[in-house]
Amino acid sequence: MAENEKQTRRSFLARLWMGAGLFLSYGTAAFYGFSFLSPRFRKPQPRRILVTSADKLPPGATTTFKDLSGRKIVLVNSGSGFIALSTTCTHLGCTAYWVPEKSHFFCPCHDGYFDVNGTVISGPPPRPLDKFEVFVDENDNVFVEMREA
Questions:
Q1: Who has greater pLDDT, 63 or 149?
Q2: Has this prediction a pTM greater than 0.90?
């Protein structure tokens, strides 16, 4: 009788481990299958927004636009290329303004200053302004690549 109980316990544990293995493998397969089908689990795809034409933005000039989520972005023609920066200050989220006479961004909330590349010059901001990739196509159209947040 004791040997019969041992056999039952052994088969029970074998079935338990087999069930756990099947559960984990099917669960993993289901997760990856669901993430493939569901956009919530997909990596956000970058989108390019047409901002302007290169000839409409001479060196030193800027244009402001909003991205898909409503953030204000400034496109600056620095003379050596185009730079797209968020106007949201990295300190407390106030709006940083472009000062063309001094070629820098200024955040009036706590006197934060950023250069034309978005790098902190002075003040309390802990990091540079958010930067976005800029592309110019063969027709001189200027695009800014946005990623969904």
A1: 63
A2: no
